[in-house]
């Protein structure tokens, strides 16, 4: 049965900085755009969803790749074998928690009009913007139906947000959707510590990896609320993603995405310049041409409000220091925004 996207749950986080009046949104589903404009004004919403000149400039530096179909389409019939293996391991039959499936306009500009399905991440970062959102449950069939509905609604790609805990179910869902006509490229946006086993299950199926590097030095774990083992897992994960798809490419000069590859993100934290510099060093070692987005919109939400050191937004000076660090390293595809 076709899914009615209009009837799907919508959850977003909206934060107004009292000092500057700046409004930021966690995500902006296209469906509620008019309501957000009515409430917060056209400019505030445009700032959140529009591609900045710097972003367009960085995208224009990406190498042109050839036009090709989504990877999973040429992975058939291997995809069926993979699903059979995943089913034999008992990994394809669970239901998975999610909180939204929507055409989304506020993500990376490089994604264009992305059809995003937000799965629930329970890693528990102190400042997670997705905390306390209402949840639903999806079977592989339910996920496949939503991917097809997003394609039908005009999405440029399908984006799995926080997919790491649900790989088996997602591979099964992808096979079901492909059999029913899904042709859009798949973007995998994770927290950057997917296991190598899971990444092998995804090899040849995902078009674009868009992982976050949450932190890189074990001593920063406490600040974030994750495990000190995260950096080792993250480094292995990013290297494997790079091996699979290489750096992000675009398909033609005028397009914002439509190309595959790896792009890395890192959320700059207050007092986090040194951490960001170590992230840039890691990128430099991996591939100086890799596109990186250093995100500067950190907000001290939830438990972070009461944790000294991460209880404020980042400053203009911190942002400038990270931009300078990227410049010093001659990394040319770093967006600091
Ligand atoms: S990894 Fe991301 S989605 Fe998961 S809890 Fe942390 S901030 Fe939230």
Structure characterization notes:
This protein is of the alpha/beta class and 337 residues long. The chain has one domain: TIM Barrel. Helix content is 35%, strand content 14%. It is built from 12 helices and 12 strands. It has helices at residues 33-40, 42-49, 53-60, 71-74, 78-88, 140-152, 167-179, 196-202, 221-224, 230-245, 273-286, 316-328; strands at 14-16, 23-25, 96-104, 114-119, 136-138, 157-161, 186-189, 208-209, 261-262, 264-267, 292-295, 334-336. It has a 7-stranded mixed beta sheet, covered by helices on one side. Helix 1 crosses helix 2. 45% of the residues are buried. The mean pLDDT is 92. The protein binds iron/sulfur cluster. Iron/sulfur cluster (SF4) is lined by residues 121, 123-125, 128, 130, 162, 191.
Task: Please summarize what this structure is.
The protein is α/β, with parallel strands linked by helices. The protein has helices at residues 33-40, 42-49, 53-60, 71-74, 78-88, 140-152, 167-179, 196-202, 221-224, 230-245, 273-286, 316-328, and strands spanning 14-16, 23-25, 96-104, 114-119, 136-138, 157-161, 186-189, 208-209, 261-262, 264-267, 292-295, 334-336.
Write the layout of secondary structure elements.
Blueprint: E1 14-16, E2 23-25, H1 33-40, H2 42-49, H3 53-60, H4 71-74, H5 78-88, E3 96-104, E4 114-119, E5 136-138, H6 140-152, E6 157-161, H7 167-179, E7 186-189, H8 196-202, E8 208-209, H9 221-224, H10 230-245, E9 261-262, E10 264-267, H11 273-286, E11 292-295, H12 316-328, E12 334-336
Parallel strand pairs: 4-6, 6-7, 7-8, 8-9, 10-11, 11-12
Antiparallel strand pairs: 1-2, 3-4, 3-5
